[in-house]
Amino acid sequence: MFSSLFKHLIIQQQKIFRLQIKTLSTVKDGVNGIRDTGIVKRFSQDKGFGFIKRDSNGNDVFVHFQSILGTGFKTLQEGQQVEFKVFQGVKGLEARNNQVKTFTNDRHIGIVRKFIKNRGFGFITRKSDGADLFVHSRSIRHTGLESLEEGMEVEFLEIQSNRGAEAKDIRIINKIDCIENSSPIGFF
């Protein structure tokens, strides 16, 4: 009895595996991964998929949560602007390598609340409304600094990523003040 049940489960698993291989192998690169932008029309967090209306032609493309770039809980919000690559899938066009791209045009001023150098990220508090924004170390590399210091005044662009509000294109306003106020290293 147990062996026949086990055999039945193995056969069912093999059918599922074959279906997955068939599904993946029929995804064509026919559209050649053309980059496009669009607006999230709808996205079901429960089901893990939704649709994006393309800016290029107004057509809808399917989007699955696994194709959203980033870490953590991957989801999209209705109305978000996204950039993606278009591929021909089994049931139609699919959006892959999705990146949320909702840049605002104006720059903001903020204060570095916390930066964890060994983890490569931190938070900036926007002066205008006190909102905290995530900042990654890759957003400060162009400044020549490896990390930010608590209390530094910075200027930045805000984007909405899949993690929420994020500070990009960081510019240090008071780097000299922070260095002057810190204790000297190597001097007695």
From TrEMBL:
Spell out the CDD domains in the cross-references.
CSP_CDS (cd04458)
Source organism? Rotaria sordida
| Descriptive protein name | CSD domain-containing protein
Q: Which residues form the CSD domain?
A: 35-100, 107-172
- What's the superkingdom here? Eukaryota
> What Gene3D superfamilies does the annotation carry?
Nucleic acid-binding proteins
An example of a GO molecular function for this protein is: nucleic acid binding
